[in-house]
């Protein structure tokens, strides 16, 4: 007989223990924000090297399959939250036997199956970026004629172990996909160019009330997030269409906390790209740009508090920093009065291209900030 899932919604007060499972970069800021709000924090990570544990009141280190340790962790907490979309669903379902997890798993289930995600979104009438499913190399050789180059190969089922992608720039790259396709079915999509990636972050509380953060534009270089800008440079009609689409999609979502909806906008055409539970790096732009942060609103929603009315306070660009940029960054450290520097706790020796932190640059308008950034010749 299956154990009962704890689904009751609880009010969490200062002094209560909130559990955080996950070891992404967001965890440290979640812990810090929770403690500043008066909560005590228990963390569960899989490696002693993970720096988040040093900030917690109680820490657990163990496998995501260690039922006994997971139960001990759950029973110490009033609620548990996950910070990443790549958490194992079975782990969350197991924890639900012992503790309330207000975020639930329904959005995770949707997010971790790209075909299910697309099928659900079709209910809204919002179009998604084109794709075909691919099961082997023969499929891929045939499908690339429909999609064209450059293309991106993504696994249909997402998790931390299989979330490997491959960019196909020409037919020479196709054999590289053989190892990936041995792991499961993949989705082949065109690499969209000429438009903009626009993301809308939403917080939904336990009473199904929701608030939206200002939409942002994400800019990539070699498929890595380079910068995030707010406010966006879009025609007001297109902005309204994006907000209308985001509102429709959010109405389908059974979830409490922070989630984001990503669109690709090309002129007046709007395409759905992703629906993502939890906190993403790009949302750090709100640490300066708005009157509240995604970390605070996540915790307000999950603890039963009223969520905030969210306002843009200052135009801001967030710039990701890599280790190889540090020499030039040190010069800007001394001379930029409107640049605010943030560095992640380092767990392992940093790869030269790994993001080690970010800069928040503010100003009178995004174009003026971008010109200042471009003049540094760092990015």
UniProtKB/TrEMBL annotation:
Cofactor entry: Mg(2+); Mn(2+)
Record key words, sorted: ATP-binding, Manganese, Nucleotide-binding, Purine biosynthesis
Protein's GO biological process: purine nucleotide biosynthetic process
Aminoacyl-tRNA synthetase in keyword set: no
Record-linked PROSITE patterns: ATP_GRASP (PS50975)
Pathway, per record: Purine metabolism
GO cellular component: cytosol
ATP-grasp domain residues: 118-303
Keyword Lipid metabolism (UniProt): no
One MF annotation (Gene Ontology) recorded for this entry: ATP binding
Cited InterPro entries: ATP-grasp, ATP-grasp_carboxylate-amine, ATP_grasp_subdomain_1, PreATP-grasp_dom_sf, PurT/PurK_preATP-grasp
Top-rank taxon, per record: Bacteria
Name of this protein: ATP-grasp domain-containing protein
Organism field: Pediococcus pentosaceus CGMCC 7049
């Amino acid at each position: 007989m299956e154990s009962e899932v704890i689904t009751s919604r609880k009010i969490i007060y200062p002094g209560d223990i909130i559990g955080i499972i996950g070891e992404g970069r967001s965890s440290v800021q979640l812990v810090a924000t929770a403690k500043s709000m008066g909560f005590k924090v228990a963390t569960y990570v899989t490696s002693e090297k993970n720096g988040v544990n040093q900030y917690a009141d109680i820490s657990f280190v163990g496998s995501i399959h260690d039922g006994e340790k997971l139960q001990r962790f759950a029973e110490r907490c009033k609620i548990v939250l996950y910070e990443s979309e790549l958490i194992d669903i079975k782990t969350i379902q197991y924890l639900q036997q012992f503790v309330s997890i207000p975020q639930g798993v329904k959005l995770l289930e949707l997010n971790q199956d790209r075909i299910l995600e697309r099928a659900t979104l079709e209910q809204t009438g919002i179009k998604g970026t084109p794709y075909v499913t691919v099961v082997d190399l023969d499929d891929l050789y045939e499908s690339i004629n429909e999609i064209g180059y450059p293309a991106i190969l993504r696994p249909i089922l997402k998790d931390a172990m299989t979330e490997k992608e491959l960019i196909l720039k020409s037919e020479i790259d196709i054999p590289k996909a053989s190892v990936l396709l041995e792991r499961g079915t993949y989705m082949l999509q065109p690499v969209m160019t000429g438009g903009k990636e626009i993301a809308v972050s939403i917080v939904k509380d336990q009473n199904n009330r929701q608030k939206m953060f200002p939409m942002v534009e994400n800019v990539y270089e070699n498929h890595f997030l380079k910068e995030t800008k707010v406010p966006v440079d879009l025609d007001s009609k297109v902005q309204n269409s994006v907000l209308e689409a985001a509102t429709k999609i959010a109405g389908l979502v059974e979830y409490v906390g922070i989630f984001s909806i990503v669109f690709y906008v090309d002129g007046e055409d709007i395409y759905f790209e992703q629906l993502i539970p939890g906190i993403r790096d790009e949302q750090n732009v709100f640490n300066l740009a708005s009157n509240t942060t995604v970390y605070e609103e996540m915790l307000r929603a999950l603890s039963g508090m009223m969520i905030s009315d969210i306002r843009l306070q200052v135009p801001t660009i967030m710039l990701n920093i890599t280790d190889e940029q540090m020499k030039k960054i040190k010069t800007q450290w001394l001379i930029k009065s409107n640049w605010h520097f943030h560095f992640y706790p380092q767990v392992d020796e940093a790869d030269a291209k790994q993001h080690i932190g970010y800069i928040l640059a503010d100003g009178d308008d995004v174009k003026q900030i971008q010109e200042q950034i471009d003049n540094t010749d760092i990015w």
